[in-house]
Design a protein that fits this description.
Blueprint (H helix, E strand, L loop, with lengths): L4 H32 L3 H20 L6 H21 L21 E2 L2 E2 L1 H13 L4 H6 L12 H19 L8 E5 L5 H14 L4 E5 H12 L11 H7 L2 E7 L6 H16 L3 E6 L3 H19 L1 E5 L4 H7 L1
Parallel strand pairs: 3-6, 3-7, 4-5, 5-6
Antiparallel strand pairs: 1-2
Helix pairs in contact: 2-3, 6-7, 10-11
The structure holds zinc ion.
The site of zinc ion (ZN) has 5 residues, from loops.
C-alpha cells in the first residue's frame, strides 16, 4: 500500500537528516556550555569516569557498589541541570533534541509507524497525486445533492454509493468505476471524492487527464524519457492503489490508445488495483472509439455509473 520503495527510502533519509541535524545542534550547545558554564565539563567528565567504573565492576561481577554509584550519577545529573538553569539556559538545554519526541525521529514506535511518519507519507501521496488543488474543493465534505432532481438525482446517489463501495472494499476486493455522462454532471467531482478519501487513508492515488495519460504512454513507448532515469512512471501507474483517468475520449484516439488502454485495464486488474475512468462519451461511442474488446472488458470488470442533469459547474458559478 502507498508509496514506492524509492519514495519510502527517501523519507527514511529525511529522518536520518533530522537526527543528524539535531545531534549537531546538541554538540554545538555542549561546546557552548563547556566554554561558558564553569564547572560543567568537570561534572560531565566525572559522569564518564563513574560510568566506566560501573561497567568495569559489572564485568568483574561486583554489583555491591552499584546502588551507591547510581545515586552518585543522579546527584551529578541534578548538579548539571542546576548549573544550566543558573546560567539561564534552561535545565533541559543539553537533553537530546527531537523533532518528534514520540518516536525520537525514527518514524517508528516499536514496530508501528509513528503518527509523524504516517503524516509524512500522506503528504507525499498528496504531492504525487497530480490532484492536490482539485480535491481541496471537490471531496465528500463539499458534496451536494441539491443540483440534481428526478432521475438525475437517483443516478447521482447511485454513483456516490458506488464511490463509497470502491473505497470501503478496496482492501478485500478492489473494484473499478466507469463514470459516464455529459459535461458537468459530477464525474470529475466524484473522482475527487474518491481521491481525497483514499489519500487520507494512506493509499496512493494518481490522477491523469486522458490527454496527459496517453501523452505519457506515448513518450514511454517511443523512448523520449531517459533510460537512466531510475524512476519509472509506468511502473508507478501500474502499481498505485487508485488510478484516475479523467475525460477519456478527449485525447486523440487511435489504435495505439485503444490497445494501450486495453493493456492497462488488464494489468491493473491483475495487480488488484482500482481504476476510475470518467468519460463524456456515451456507451455506444465508447465502444466505437476503443474497440469491442476494450468495451466488453470495461463492462465486465467495472461498475458502470451514468450521470445526467444540467451542467453543475455552470450552476455552481451562478450560485
Ligand atoms: Zn514520530
Amino acid at each position: 500500500m502507498g508509496l514506492s520503495n524509492e519514495k519510502y527510502n527517501e523519507i527514511q533519509r529525511e529522518y536520518e537528516t533530522i537526527r543528524l541535524k539535531n545531534r549537531h545542534t546538541l554538540e554545538e550547545r555542549r561546546d557552548y556550555v563547556y566554554k561558558n558554564v564553569e564547572g560543567y565539563k568537570e561534572l560531565d567528565d566525572s559522569v564518564v569516569s563513574i560510568s566506566m567504573d560501573m561497567a568495569k565492576k559489572r564485568l568483574e561481577g561486583d554489583e555491591s557498589v552499584m546502588d551507591e554509584l547510581h545515586a552518585l550519577l543522579d546527584d551529578l545529573k541534578d548538579m548539571k541541570r542546576s548549573l544550566l538553569k543558573g546560567a539561564g539556559l534552561g535545565e533541559d538545554y543539553l537533553d537530546p533534541i527531537y523533532d518528534c519526541p514520540d518516536c525520537h525521529d525514527t518514524g517508528y514506535i516499536g514496530s508501528e509507524r509513528c503518527h509523524c511518519l504516517k503524516d509524512r507519507i500522506v503528504t507525499e501521496l498528496y504531492e504525487q497525486s497530480n490532484i492536490l488543488d482539485y480535491i481541496e474543493k471537490n471531496n465528500f465534505d463539499t458534496l451536494r445533492y441539491d443540483f440534481y432532481e428526478g432521475e438525475s438525482l437517483d443516478l447521482f446517489k447511485r454513483s456516490v454509493q458506488a464511490c463509497h463501495e470502491l473505497i470501503d472494499t478496496y482492501d478485500t476486493h478492489p473494484t473499478n468505476l466507469l463514470l459516464y455522462g455529459t459535461v458537468g454532471t459530477g464525474k470529475s467531482f466524484l473522482s475527487g471524492c474518491i481521491a481525497k478519501d483514499m489519500l487520507d487513508r494512506g493509499y496512493s492515488v494518481i490522477y491523469f487527464s486522458a490527454i496527459s495519460f496517453f501523452d505519457l504512454l506515448a513518450k514511454e513507448a517511443f523512448g523520449h524519457n531517459s533510460k537512466e532515469d531510475l524512476y519509472n512512471p509506468l511502473e508507478y501507474i501500474y502499481n498505485c492503489d487508485v488510478l484516475i483517468i479523467d475525460d477519456l475520449g478527449t485525447e486523440l484516439s487511435n489504435s495505439f490508445t485503444a490497445s494501450r488502454l486495453f493493456y492497462f485495464i488488464n494489468e491493473r486488474n491483475l495487480r488488484r488495483k482500482s481504476t476510475v475512468i470518467s468519460t463524456n462519451l456515451a456507451l455506444d461511442k465508447l465502444q466505437e472509439t476503443y474497440s469491442d474488446r476494450v468495451f466488453s472488458r470495461l463492462l465486465s470488470t467495472y461498475t458502470v455509473c451514468k450521470l445526467t442533469g444540467p451542467d453543475i459547474r455552470m450552476l455552481k458559478k451562478l450560485s
